[in-house]
Amino acid sequence: MIKTVIIEDEKPASRKLERMLSNFPEIEIVGKIESVEEGVAWFSENEHPQLIFSDIVLGDGLSFDIFEKVPTKGFIIYTTAFDQYTLKAFKLNSIDYLLKPILEEDLSGAVEKFKSFIPANNTTGSEDIKQLIRKEKSTLSRVLVKIGYNLKIVQTQEISCFFSENKIVYLQTEERVYPSDFTLDELEDILEEKKFFRVNRQFIINSDYIKNIHTSPYYKVDMEFQPQEEITVSRDRVKDFKEWLVG
């Protein structure tokens, strides 16, 4: 049996996930947690499960806080409405990242993925599984941005470029510029490589919005939507840039 814990602060969502997991006879739910405080206490007092299904945004904080205070050898499938936390999730024993509403086929795929990491003799250790997980690269498909007291979801396909200014990273769309919580280094790890390329220390661009490329006296890119500052390709990135354009 795969001992499993559910971390979810919305009771209807918790019940729905429990019902969905009842279709997997190999899964035994040994605990349900609704808050960071409750999670820290539970993981401090109980044997850790093999598998954890966890929402990220809880009423008293982020579920990441639980595992930063009480490190676990269990592996986590995150269930959330937003994917802005993808990078941090995959640094914390995450096997998969399911966006709500969770589909049966996605849940089944996540469970099968976990099972595929565990050989019949169950000798694979935590570090072995981490190595397997690192081979799978997650990509960011939407970004949550804050506008005053409101939140807005921006699809990455709508973003012409990301750029850094005064230690804040912004994203540019046709509509406007929005601040984000990412660094450019983080974005490089989680954006789709075929679409996005970091041309210099300040800019990551989306190939779908390239309007023109100047090659003399240096490489400069004109985007359909961009801030006033020109976008140049660093000399040490020109070769990779050209390969990316045709790749």
Automatic annotation (TrEMBL):
Record-level Gene Ontology MF annotations: DNA binding; phosphorelay response regulator activity
Domain HTH LytTR-type: start-end pairs: 143-247
Gene3D superfamilies on file: 3.40.50.2300, LytTr DNA-binding domain
Residues where 4-aspartylphosphate is found: 55
Keyword entries, A-Z: Phosphoprotein
Top-level taxon of origin: Bacteria
SUPFAM superfamilies, per database record: CheY-like
Keyword Transferase attributed: no
Domain spans labelled Response regulatory: 3-115
Listed PANTHER family: TRANSCRIPTIONAL REGULATOR, TRANSCRIPTIONAL REGULATOR-RELATED
Official protein name in the record: Two component transcriptional regulator, LytTR family
Organism of derivation: Chryseobacterium oleae
